[in-house]
Amino acid sequence: xxxxxxxxxVSHAYKTDSGPLPxxxxxxxKMAEGSFTAVVGPSGCGKSTLTRLIAGLMRPDExxxxxxxxxxxxxxxxxxxxxxxxxxxxxxSILQNVMLPLEIxxxxxxxxxxxxxxxxxxxxxxLEGFEDKRPSELSxxxxxxxxxxxxxxHRPQVLILDEPFxxxxxxxxxxxxxxxxxLRSEEPFTCLLITHDLRESVFLADEVVVLSGRPATAxxxxxxxxxxxxxxxxxxxxxxxxxxxxxxxxxxxxxxRAPAEAAE
Amino acid sequence: MKIFRKIAVPILAILIFxxxxxxxxxxxxxxxxxxxxxxxxxxxxxxxxxxxxxYGWQTLWRTVAGLGLAVVVGTLIGMxxxxxxxxxxxxxxxLVGFNAIPKATVVPVIALIFxxxxxxxxxxxxFMISFFPIAVSVSIGLxxxxxxxxxxxxxxxxxxxxxxxxxxxxxxxxxxxxxxKVAVTLAFIGxxxxxxxxxxxxxxxxxxxxxxxxxxxxxxxxxxxALAVLGILLFYIVVALEKVFAGWAERTAH
Lengths: 264, 254
Hints:
Chain A has 7 helices and 10 strands. Helices cover about 35% and strands about 25% of the residues of chain A.
């Protein structure tokens, strides 16, 4: 069984007027089929660059990105993406927005099958009855739910989430974490989540990767063994609190605000 | 109530405007060579009613033709400028410079391209004066497209054309119609500039010119009113098109 996503010794630099700006250095990440990996790190450490590399929107200067046993050289239909900005198209209804990827990706679905698929996903995230609304008629949390539906409507192997809950208020965010768990139990996908929120990473992921400051490399990896059926309360158990403390310390190390040797 | 506000209120505003105008002329006892009053206009209209229809039509169709040309060329220029930074930076000074030239000075030059009473001269001026806002708004609409919008389709392997067709084009429509509303009135100015400055016996501009030559001041005012009516007509046609194609951008007020 090939590993769905693997980054092998990936290095990347942006060309700027004052010379190359290295953002990623010798980054190695492996994600097993169906796993959920969260990537955290200081701001500006190249997390979004990582998503664009995996999506095939950019190619790394050095190293390779492997996806399903092949090296990624260009975008592919087996990837789904969602961002902090839900980027829904205002001139389409919610249902048509969710169906957008099915218009691009080659599939054998008829029009009514596509519609059924989209309706079923919308019901799963609690947007039943909002199919014909315009995005502007929905709240921020609802828009983000619709955006999540769009990112998985074509059954991607890999789902890339770039801080999708970052702009939401705390309560809505926790609601959406629960929705993510519900979606995951219904839809098989391997997920990479970029986030600033340590609680979010512990609540959602099987493994948390802490990136160092720029140029970023995998500084620390934490396996989250909180089981499958997590509830928000699980974040307040001693085990979770320990994990959060470890992660917080690692972030401080990455920011250069704490010495590395005190890490363990 | 809604229909009342949309139709009755504007008509009432026009009537009040006409009444004030009439009163102003009457109160100051102005002769009609200083300022014609609305009551002088109707006889002028009626006397030349067939000329108004014929010339009005000439002005209208040439304005629409110039505007159509401006839409096509302006959109194309806006597209290449929107997609390529190099083209944008290269073309901007040229476009701004071109736009800064008073079109009245271009009229005699253009009049030599299609010598004589050629419709194309007029259409060209209407086009030249009105394509700029369209090109600028389309290019801004395309170049300010957030990268995420591109990425949701690009990450699925969609071509540049699909991204343009499904996202960039519809997203630019509100800006496009905003510019088109400006362009409509500009195109009218262009058409009449040609008709008045370079008389060639066609259009409402020519009627205005003959009013001037014959010292028929009510006729001159009547032409101005006719032009305003045509301008309003075209403007609302654009508003109707906007409702159909970009109605989604309008926030409904609850």
